[in-house]
Specification:
With about 500 residues, the protein is an alpha+beta fold. Helices cover about 15% and strands about 25% of the residues. It contains 8 helices and 25 strands. The strands form 5 sheets. Strands 2, 4, 5, 7, 8, 9, 10, 11, 12, 13 and 14 form an 11-stranded mixed beta sheet that branches. Strands 20-21-16-15-25 form a 5-stranded antiparallel beta sheet, with no helix packed on it. The longest helix is centred in the middle third of the chain and has 19 residues.
């Protein structure tokens, strides 16, 4: 684990401290949001062994009382579906003891995970004061934060809670900016409650957020520096949430894997998504979709002028080496490209850019298209659908109309006398943009030696490929940047379809 991490232990004692007492599990509380219909919310908690618990939901729509027995110290109820809205009151009663929750709303629950760029707080971003002033206008976007804890075994409940459910502006300053802004932007479109659950930790690789099942799929089960550290955050900060019915998840992570198991990330990241989906579906009794939507941020930037392929490789691996999502390996996913949002003067280090508004907005577009099936919502930047290679130029046809800014070096070609796959150590030279049309870009291959042929092409393949919002290819609206790509040309033909 990174040395910059610290454990914050507050608010909630161990679940064993109140053994036998009637109460809700740690992540239920006043002001919370539960998943709305058509899914059903799951409630659970603790009580005297063998006792019968009566659970009542009262508010805009009444539900019949639910009766459930306590087994092994735990009771659990699946409510009937409830439409978006509220407020509701929830009570659990056993014998002469009552546990109650007030001001409960029904809406969509989004889980926000990852490392420090997901953790970066709203108080630390550009225009923080303005964002915090706006927060009070969104009382139906509620926040919850798990505390930082490690565990070598899978936990049933969170060991501690950092921030209980709260109504904005309470806790927003200390809450994940990407998560908060994503929820706020979604609310403006959906106009019903949004519940945001933050569970992230800076400096962490994907392996600690993955179960042993997922790691085994990628042959990573025993390869961590200390194998006991595999899954330590899955165990303590994800596994306890599995009973919760959620709408989807967003994720910002990958920096820690730029120099740790980088080559395996094209397996470990998709495998983690698959495993979370399976586990949340089973844990909620089938209420969370088996293929719930999963959004993520493609890595931004770190070192200007760096020749390292680490960040470009992780960006590529984040898409399972396809360059875009959704794709056949990563279905029902969406991605926010962030390589055009560098922040050279960030007081938190260049690896932590402060423009989280654009990141969250791009995620929101993806959620609207993939999670909410909104038609005519553009959420993907331009991607090549056809590449034609001639003797002295390359023509790229994109899958949509583009806005192009000339560049001499953001496109690169690999020149080789023999048609073999090109890699990081191959001879890459700039391919200047010559001309462009509504959906096409033409590149010069003049920097190849006359005896060489173009063996491969790549775009924005650098740690810091452009200045702020100044990459060369965007959607026609200039809202969505083209993601980076790399492709090796087939030796058998002069063109390649992607």
């Amino acid at each position: 684990m990174a040395k910059s991490l610290c454990v914050v232990l507050i608010l909630f004692a161990s679940i064993h401290d109140c053994e036998g007492a009637l109460r809700f599990a740690s992540y239920y509380g006043d002001h919370m949001v539960l998943q709305k219909s058509p899914e059903s919310a799951v409630l659970w908690g603790y009580g005297p062994e063998g006792a019968q618990v009566t659970v009542t939901l009262s508010g805009p729509s009444q539900q019949k009382k639910s009766l459930v027995n306590v087994a092994k110290g735990i009771w659990r109820v699946t409510l009937d579906p409830v439409e978006a809205g509220g407020p509701y009151n929830l009570t659990a009663v056993v014998q002469s003891s009552t546990a109650a929750l007030t001001d409960v709303l029904f809406g969509d629950i989004w889980l926000c995970g990852g490392q420090s760029n997901m953790w970066l707080q709203t108080s630390k971003i550009f225009n923080a004061s303005e964002e915090l002033d706006l927060a009070a206008k969104y009382p139906h976007v509620r926040t919850f934060m798990a505390a930082l804890n490690l565990s070598e075994i899978e936990q049933t409940d969170l060991l501690q809670v950092e921030h209980t459910w709260a109504v904005p502006p309470e806790n927003v300053a200390d809450f994940s900016a990407v998560c908060w802004l994503f929820g706020r932007y979604l609310y403006k479109t959906l106009q019903y409650p949004i519940g945001l659950v933050e569970s992230c930790w800076g400096g962490t690789p994907v392996e600690v957020w993955s179960s042993s099942r997922a790691l085994k799929r990628c042959e990573l089960l025993q390869t961590y520096n200390n194998p006991k550290e595999n899954s330590i955050l899955w165990n303590s900060m994800i596994h306890p949430l599995l009973n919760m019915t959620i709408k989807g998840a967003i994720w910002y992570q990958g920096e820690a894997n730029a120099d740790y198991h980088q080559d395996q990330y094209n397996c470990s990241f998709p495998a983690m998504i698959d495993d979370w989906r399976m586990a949340f579906h089973q844990g909620s009794g089938g209420q969370t979709a088996h293929d719930f939507p999963f959004g993520f941020v493609q890595l931004s930037t770190y070192e200007k002028g760096s020749k390292s392929d680490a960040f470009p490789n992780i960006r590529w691996h984040q898409t399972a080496d396809k360059g875009f999502v959704p794709n056949p390996r990563m279905q029902k996913t969406f991605m926010a490209v962030a390589l055009d949002l560098p922040d050279a003067t960030s007081p938190f280090g260049t690896i932590h850019p402060r423009d989280k508004q654009d990141v969250a907005y791009r995620l929101t577009l993806g959620a609207r298209a993939v999670a909410y099936n909104e038609k005519d919502v553009s959420f993907q930047g331009p991607f090549p659908k056809l590449i034609l290679s001639a003797h002295d130029f390359i023509n790229i046809t994109y899958d949509q109309n583009v806005s192009v800014t000339p560049s001499k070096d953001i496109f690169e070609i690999c020149c080789s006398e023999i048609q073999t796959p090109c890699g990081p150590k191959s001879s890459w030279v700039p391919a200047p943009i010559m001309h462009w049309g509504p959906a096409t870009v033409q590149l010069s291959t003049s920097l190849c030696q006359s005896t060489d042929k173009v063996a491969a092409l790549r775009y924005a393949w650098g740690d810091w490929p452009c200045d702020f919002k100044a990459c060369s290819v965007y959607s026609a609206s200039r809202i969505l940047p083209a993601p980076p790509f790399i492709t090796n040309h087939s030796p058998a033909k002069g063109n390649q379809e992607l």
